[in-house]
Structures are given as C-alpha cells and as structure tokens.
C-alpha cells in the first residue's frame, strides 16, 4: 500500500524591495541590478540577515574613519577644529570629565566641578564604567582617552549589529528592509557621539520579542532600555491604545509588569544606596535650559523675552500628552488598526520634536522605528538627508561660536535653518506614516499582503473597541480584508509600488 505523497506548498517568499520600490530598484543598478528569485531562495551563505549585519558593521567602520581627524588631534588640541571636521564625540571628553580616569564610582562618588554626579541613567553609567575597566590606565591622559573611545566604539559596534539583526528579523517577510538601517548615513555619523546605541539596541530587541508574541520578554527588554535612556518607555503609550482596541489586556499588563520589574532591578540598588547620585539624571533633565536643535531655541534666540525653563518643561509635557491623546484617537478610529511600529515611531518622534533639546545622536532613536514603520526608500532617504544637514549644521554653528573673531562656520540664523530642516524632515516622515494609517491601502507593508508583522498578538487580531466610522460596523480581524496573495506564482510580485 502506497502512502500518499505529502502536499508541497510554495515557500513564503521574502518581499524584494527592488521589485516593489522604484528607488531601491534604481539604486541596485550600482551593484548589478535587482536580486533575482534564486538569489533569495537558494542555499547561498549570503542570507539577508548576514548581508544586512555586515553592511551595518561596514557603515559603522566608515563612521569611525570619519572621526579620524578628531582621534589624532582635534579632541585634544583644538576646540573649534573638532567642529569644523564634524567629528565631535562626548566619549573621550567625559573619560576625564566624569571621573573615570580617576577611578571614581558613578553615582556614589562626587565629581569635581559643577557636575557633582554623573548625569546619565544607571544602565548607561554601567556601560561607561565597564568601558573604563577595559581601558588601559597607563600612558598619558590623551592616550587613555583614545583607548576609552576605541573600547566604547567596539561595544557600540556590537550594539549596531544587534540592531541590524533585530530589525531584519522583526518583519519576517521583509528582511531586506534592514538595509535601510544598515545604510543610514545618520547612523554612521552619530553612532559614537554618545552612548545612545545601547538603548536603541535594547529597544530593537524588545520590538523583535513583541513581534514573536513574547510580551514578558518585550517588557523586560523595554525596562532595561528605559534604564539606559528615557525614550523607550514611550512605546508603552501606543501599545496601550492598540491593546485597548483589540482587548489584549493580559499581554499589555505582562509587558508593563516586565518593564517595571526590569527597571527596578537595575535602578533600585543605586537608588537605595546613592539616591542623590541616582537622581542626578532626572534633576538635570528638569533643570537643563533650552538647548541645541529644538524649535524652543529658535524662539529663545529670536525673542527679547525668551521662555523660561519651567514654562518649556510644562509646555513640552503638555504637547507630548496631547500627541498621545491624538494617537490614541487615531488608533481607535482608524479604518484599520494601525501597526505597532507606526505608532511607536510617531510617539517617539512627537517626544523628539517637542523636546527642549535635540542632540544630533537622537536620530538613532528613530532609525529602527522609522524603517519598521515606513520601509520606503524614497521617504527614508529624504528624512536622512535632512538629518545629515542638521548634523553638519550644528557642528558648523559650534565652530562659528568657538572660533573667536575668525567666525569660521555657520551663524545663528543659518543654524536656525538647519534646525528647521531637521524638524520638517521628521514631520514629513510622520505625515507619511499617518497617511498610511488613514489610508491603509497605501501602506507599503500591508500592500505586500501582511497585517502587522511587528504586532505579535496584535497581528490579525479582532477589534473589540473602535470609534467613529470604524465602528459602523465594527472592523474585525484585519487580515480578513487583506488581499489574498498567491504564493505559488512568485514570478509576479503581489503588488507593484506606484509613484506616490
């Protein structure tokens, strides 16, 4: 008796950007043209994950080369030259300035000078301290600072690899979107300015865990990310709105519980035994005045009566709350449930745009979220061009203010234009994401046949609470009205991207 032959189903083919994105297709001509079907589905060692990770490491290395003028002299022998070469980094300066060269323990030992304690969250302080342990203590202070920057660069390169892997794997059928992260020029330029990549890597890992339906692991990683930088906690706000619409309260509270416990495990020991040092980050954030990169700075520098720090703190908080309420209303009233990555990007972008300071490395917070929210090459490149403009603008402005009567660089009004370019670029990408939510048929991810690849338990979930037109009748599982894709005919892409 013969056993029936097993039914063979066509493999789920990864989405090929060069077949659905005109900019990706045009750019691929530089390396031989669009990838073919067998290049993706064959047994080659060059899988999308490996290619994206190696490209990300390569771009990171180019960013290190770009810092070479500062590494050799500008960090140590000239205040303005590190700005004219656009290679400034906090890392070597804070090795001595925050007591690491003298063996002081962060949060427990007072620092000499105006900054009495380290003004960074605890997990970032641990990262900085580990790098100090690995830095040779012999030689001149310049030699030690160079080593400290190199050690941190190696650790931050590992964070970059983690980000590339996590973004590539979050959308299962869209691994090549990870190239948008790997090739982001702003990532290469700003990666070693500060320690933000630690929080970005933990946040990217948290997004990957949520996409796999692991709510508790998501919460733990998000709590650790918040212990390294404040912004990751804002991802819980859009998650609240999405879980409200779908009724996934169990998973939401698992995520919140994991985040709270992980944050407390890191912070509580320092909080109990060195409260004054632990609280420095929060008091510094409140007391810090209007600073670089914000629209508040444009207001302050063009007004005879600039706003006070207290007014800006209150106003920025109110604006963020209003943005959250607007995103919640959008989530509950949208014709189709928004994707988690879309709302996460919009929430963090709202915080960045309304904040009283925008350091150039803050763009790192948005890069992975932007790629997951709107993986369209044209829009990401437009936004990145705006961020590179701002990156050059702030250093040229600082060169202008530190070069004395020579006035080398960009004057104040020119710097204001650079800030405006950054703000407009971010708002443009936000507008594209909001349009995708209001008109889900324009969403690049959903036009490929997916619902919410980064949504985890939200992917294809039924709606239980909606508002407005979406409630007449209530929209149910989003994948019910998704286009049906015939995966047995891979010679033709399921959708063709048209000019928008």
TrEMBL record:
Q: Where in the cell is it found?
A: Cell membrane
In terms of InterPro entries, this protein maps to: GT87, UCP010361
Q: Where are the transmembrane segments?
A: 45-65, 117-135, 147-167, 179-210, 216-240, 252-275, 311-333, 415-438
Q: What is its main location?
A: membrane
Q: Which UniProt keywords apply?
A: Cell membrane, Membrane, Transferase, Transmembrane, Transmembrane helix
Q: How does it sit in the membrane?
A: Multi-pass membrane protein
Q: Which domain of life is it from?
A: Bacteria
Molecular function terms in GO for this entry?
hexosyltransferase activity
Example GO CC term: the record gives: plasma membrane
Protein family membership? Belongs to the glycosyltransferase 87 family.
Q: What is this protein called?
A: DUF2029 domain-containing protein
């Amino acid at each position: 008796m013969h056993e029936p032959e097993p039914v063979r189903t066509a493999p789920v083919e990864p989405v090929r950007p060069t077949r659905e994105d005109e900019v990706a297709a045009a750019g691929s001509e530089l390396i031989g043209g669009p990838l073919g079907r067998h290049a993706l589905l064959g047994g080659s060692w060059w899988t999308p994950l490996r290619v994206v990770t190696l490209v990300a490491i390569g771009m990171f290395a180019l960013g290190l080369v770009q810092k070479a003028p500062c590494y050799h002299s500008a960090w140590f022998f000239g205040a303005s030259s590190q700005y004219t070469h656009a290679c400034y980094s906090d890392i070597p300066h804070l090795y001595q300035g925050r007591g690491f060269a003298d063996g002081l323990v962060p949060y427990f030992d007072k620092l000499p000078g105006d900054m009495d304690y380290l003004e960074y969250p605890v997990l970032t302080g641990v990262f900085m301290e580990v790098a100090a342990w690995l830095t040779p203590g012999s030689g001149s202070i310049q030699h030690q600072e160079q080593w400290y920057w190199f050690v941190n660069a190696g650790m931050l390169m590992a964070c970059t690899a983690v980000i590339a892997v996590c973004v590539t794997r979050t959308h299962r059928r869209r691994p090549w979107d990870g190239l948008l992260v790997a090739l982001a020029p702003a990532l290469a330029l700003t990666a070693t300015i500060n320690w933000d990549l630690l929080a970005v890597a933990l946040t990217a890992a948290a997004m990957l865990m949520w996409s796999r339906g692991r709510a508790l692991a998501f919460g733990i990683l998000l709590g650790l990310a918040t212990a390294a930088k404040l912004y990751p906690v804002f991802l819980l706000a859009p998650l609240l709105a999405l879980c409200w619409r779908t009724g996934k309260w169990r998973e939401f509270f698992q995520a919140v519980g994991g985040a709270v416990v992980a944050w407390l495990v890191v912070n509580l020991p320092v909080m109990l035994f060195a409260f004054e040092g632990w609280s420095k980050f929060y008091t510094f954030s409140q007391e810090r005045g209007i600073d670089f990169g914000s629209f508040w700075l444009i207001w302050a520098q063009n007004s005879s009566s600039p706003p006070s720090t207290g007014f800006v703190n209150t106003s920025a908080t109110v604006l963020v709350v209003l943005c959250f309420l607007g995103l919640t209303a959008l989530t509950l009233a949208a014709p189709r449930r928004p994707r988690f990555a879309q709302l996460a990007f919009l929430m963090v972008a709202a915080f960045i745009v309304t904040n009283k300071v925008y350091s150039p490395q803050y763009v790192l917070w948005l890069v992975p979220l932007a790629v997951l929210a709107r993986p369209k090459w044209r829009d990401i490149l437009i936004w990145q061009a705006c961020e590179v403009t701002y990156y050059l603008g702030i250093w040229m402005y600082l060169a202008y203010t530190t070069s004395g009567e020579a006035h080398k660089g960009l004057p104040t009004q020119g710097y204001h234009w650079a800030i405006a370019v950054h703000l407009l670029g971010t708002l443009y990408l936000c507008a594209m994401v909001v349009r995708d939510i209001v008109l889900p048929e324009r969403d690049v991810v959903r036009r490929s046949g997916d619902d919410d690849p980064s949504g985890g338990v939200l992917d294809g979930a039924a709606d239980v609470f909606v508002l407005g037109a979406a409630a007449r009748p209530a929209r149910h599982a989003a994948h019910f009205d998704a286009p049906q894709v015939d995966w047995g005919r891979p010679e033709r892409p399921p959708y063709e991207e048209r000019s928008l």
